[in-house]
Design goal:
The complex is a heterodimer of chains A (430) and B (384). With 430 residues, chain A is mostly helical. Chain A is 74% helix and 0% strand. The chains are: A mainly alpha (430), B alpha/beta (384).
Chain lengths: 430, 384
């Protein structure tokens, strides 16, 4: 059997086992694991213990960020901080929808832009923004779509865009010149998203909202809430401003520090261990999915399936490559997450380079499209995280439907940036 | 339910045992080096910079001294251990080289930490073996980046010292993005500081950093030269292409791309810095089944397909890029660079013998140039 037939067969086995597992109501994470095991067996690798363990650690850092950031937010919520913020925002802006939307778009963009992780936006800002939007009579799936789409854009936004950075590293291109090509589309698309999806939002019924919202505990004030966020921002910024004298803390420790400060500043005594236990229980499905997605990627690489997918995509006719970016990039993200950058990003940027396009603008365009894949199964990590964080009870399909228009807009903008990258080269000034 | 929990527990424990054993073996695999007759002494990187002494990256420095004075060359293998031709070529230098004039310093594991880990999600084999007349010698596969067990966590973005250029976060563990090093920095940065100190103290004239590259990467089959070494590289390239049986190009080190050996060594020391790239299909993103076979033969139908679509910067056919060919390119390029240098600077000449050239490596295989540690004098036996 030749390499293509062999890899195709392994891929078919993986897909079949995944679908079968889902039909038997097996959870997403175990279905992924079953698909990986079946792929390894079909590929003649047996049960490769080393590869399973190694793959399981692929997204270990991201898992730590998820856990510590969620712990931080849960502590803040239990201390009454979230209720305090939401009540204050509603009081101040309940009649000024446009200002509120613009403010939310900016607030949602900042955490992901600073850290490169849309999950941080969802975890840090998502809950609070969702609560306020809920009082504007927007359905939960639409709120989830607003938060998810802008979280994705925040991850692509400068200064830290991991897809652009990882791809640039893969082609030995300095991460320079990306600021405007990433910033402009991300800000404009974030605004377009919130104004489009929030167009039917009603002014907040102030009395009702204030009656329904939980009362924050006595003694809660802005200082107690802002200080942990400030500590987070200062610690992130310090690493960037004084990179040679400030120790590398890593995002998990920074979130843990912010969480510690939240506990210290809380006006009420927080049951930290109980909240930590609840946080881990809340995140367990996501952690499992990330772990098993890592295993799946490793087995796909081992058996040649990853190569089959990559070579099939990059050898399509150029015009097809352009106009399938909106499919190939999100799908690669759904399966590989940031691993999509070296697998598809590198060959695509080199392809665009040989076509005499501007690789920086083209890569920026691709980076804007990539995060859309975070809502797509099998992993759907950020999509599910968003749904969990805002407490969406409706079906996941409804959420995806709400994402459709902004997603199409983002895909169109990203694709046009690739196609017209040469004409947009003036944006690559810093 | 209880049975299910027990079954999952047993499966988990079995995975833990078998994977743990494999990881332990990789990290502690001893790679023997039989120092050749030309090796006068073996120093440690820690001798040049205290900040690295006793760490995983306190690498061996094999010093080959000639009977006549001359210049000094430093060869770096293992900057990126996942590019094994670089390490293997350096191995041959340490085991077979005899210097008549000048000095040759060889580091086989410039980033030893990176030899002890394999790429997460990359499905790399833990190690690979080279056949010899006396059996097989096994080498760690390694990765591009230092082991997170030795250097962790990563920042959100890597700010290079001293240029402040921003790079992908993971490159803070990339030895070839950390030059010239930072004395109080990370393990990788301190390793570069130690190597920079070595270059300064030993008054090294030329540094050659041995690498391999994916075929989809434009900088391939080439000598990347700092501006101080442009003439040397151009002349050596011409000579190699004319007489060694393979072509090698010349690329000039970009002035604005920081952290790389070919830029920073030239900028921060008196040495000329050159970097050699050989083709390694194993690294290509479009590679198929991943394993030692692909690593050592360089044969892959998916990459051939990518080549047919004009997506590669180096040719590839069904014969692939065998490891012997890749190592032979490195040994021949080093010899030609030395001959060109010595012809141009007789007072700083470096005359090296005993090293097989391209055609000989291909004809006999690398294994023919690896010494049997079982028969070696214990005094000349070292481990990487």
């Amino acid at each position: 059997m030749n390499a293509t037939a062999s890899a195709t067969l392994v891929l078919a086995v993986m897909v079949a086992v995944y679908i079968a597992a889902k039909l038997f109501k097996v959870s997403t994470e175990l279905s992924l694991f079953a698909a990986a095991l079946a792929g390894a067996l079909a590929g003649g690798a047996g049960i490769p213990a080393r590869h399973i363990a190694e793959g399981a650690f692929t997204y270990f850092d991201i898992i730590l960020i998820f856990v510590t950031a969620t712990l931080f937010m849960n502590l803040l919520k239990d201390s009454g901080g979230v209720a305090f913020v939401v009540r204050s925002v509603i009081r101040r802006f309940h009649r000024r929808k446009s200002v509120l939307f613009a403010l939310f778009a900016v607030l949602l963009l900042i955490p992901g832009a600073l850290t490169g992780a849309g999950s941080v936006t969802v975890l840090v800002m998502g809950g609070m923004v969702a609560t306020v939007l809920g009082y504007m009579d927007l359905p939960r799936p639409r709120i989830a779509a607003i938060i998810f789409v802008i979280a994705g854009l925040s991850a692509a936004a400068p200064p830290v865009s991991l897809w652009a950075m990882l791809t640039a590293a893969g082609v030995n291109m300095p991460y320079v010149g990306f600021f405007l090509p990433l910033l402009i589309p991300c800000v404009l698309l974030a605004m377009a998203t919130i104004f489009w999806l929030g167009r039917k939002a009603k002014p907040v019924n102030l009395d009702l909202a204030l009656r329904e919202l939980p009362e924050p505990p006595a003694g809660m004030n802005w200082l107690r809430i802002v200080l942990p966020f400030l500590a987070f921002l200062v610690l992130v910024a310090a690493g960037r401003v004084w990179p040679f004298s400030f120790p590398i803390l890593g995002l998990p420790l920074i979130f843990a520090a912010a969480a510690g400060l939240t506990v210290a500043l809380s006006p009420i005594r927080l049951p930290v261990l109980e909240i930590a236990r609840r946080t881990v229980a809340q995140l367990l499905p996501l952690i499992g999915t990330l772990t098993c997605a890592g295993i799946l990627v490793q087995i796909m690489t081992l058996t040649g399936v990853r190569g089959l997918i990559a070579v099939t995509v990059v050898t399509l006719p150029v015009i097809v490559v352009y106009f399938t970016l909106f499919v190939t990039l999100p799908v690669s993200e759904a399966v590989l997450m940031w691993g999509a950058a070296p697998v598809l990003g590198v060959p695509l940027v080199l392809l665009f380079n040989t076509l005499n396009l501007n690789p920086i603008v083209a890569l920026a365009g691709m980076s804007v499209i990539w995060p859309l894949g975070d809502a797509i199964p099998p992993t759907a990590i950020i999509g599910r995280l968003t749904a969990d964080t805002i407490g969406m009870k409706e079906s996941y399909g409804k959420f995806l439907k709400e994402c459709l228009v902004p997603a199409l807009l983002i895909a169109a903008v990203g694709t046009l940036m690739v196609v017209f990258s040469k004409k947009l080269a003036f944006l690559t000034v810093f | 339910m209880r049975l299910r929990k027990i079954a999952i527990g047993v499966f988990g424990l079995a995975l833990l045992f078998f994977s743990g054993t494999s990881f332990y073996r990789s990290r502690h695999l001893k790679e023997p080096v039989v120092a050749g007759a030309g090796v006068a002494k073996v120093a440690r990187l820690g001798d040049y910079f205290e900040g690295i002494r006793g760490t995983t990256n306190d690498a061996n420095v094999y010093v080959l001294e000639g009977t006549e004075p001359g210049g000094t060359i430093l060869i770096l293998g293992g900057s990126h251990p996942e590019e094994p031709a670089g390490r293997l070529a350096a191995w041959i230098l340490a085991e077979q080289g005899v210097v008549r004039k000048g000095r040759l310093l060889v580091v086989l594991s410039a980033n030893r930490s990176a030899t002890t880990v394999t790429r997460l999600g990359g499905a790399y084999p833990p190690d690979f073996s080279i056949k010899t007349d006396w059996g097989e010698q096994t080498f760690r596969m390694g990765d591009r980046w230092s082991n997170p067990l030795d250097q962790w966590p990563d920042p959100e973005v890597y700010v290079h010292y001293p240029s402040r250029q921003e790079l992908a976060y993971v490159d803070i563990r990339n030895l070839n993005r950390a030059w010239p090093g930072r004395p109080n920095g990370t393990l990788t940065e301190r390793t570069c500081t130690a190597l920079t100190e070595l270059i300064r103290r030993e008054k090294v004239d030329i540094v050659i950093d041995l690498h391999e590259a994916e075929l989809q990467y434009p900088v391939i089959s080439t000598i990347v030269a700092h501006q101080k070494g442009q003439d040397l590289a151009a002349m050596a390239s011409m000579m190699i292409s004319g007489s060694e049986g393979f072509n090698i190009g010349v690329e000039y080190s970009p002035l604005s791309l920081h952290g790389l050996s070919h830029r920073e060594i030239g900028d921060n020391t008196d040495a000329i810095s050159l970097l050699l790239e050989a083709p390694e299909p194993f690294l290509d993103a479009t590679r198929g089944r991943t394993g030692t076979d692909l690593l050592l033969t360089g044969r892959d139908p998916f990459i051939v397909k990518a080549g047919r679509h004009g997506l590669l910067f180096e040719k590839i056919d069904e014969n692939g890029w065998p490891i012997d060919v890749r190592v032979g390119r490195h040994t021949s390029a080093i010899l030609q660079i030395l001959e060109t240098w010595s012809g141009d600077k007789p007072e700083r000449a470096i005359v090296l013998e005993g090293i097989p050239r391209y055609e000989e490596v291909i004809a006999k295989g690398i294994g023919a140039f690896l010494r049997d540690p079982a028969k070696a004098d214990p005094k000349s036996l070292y481990f990487e």
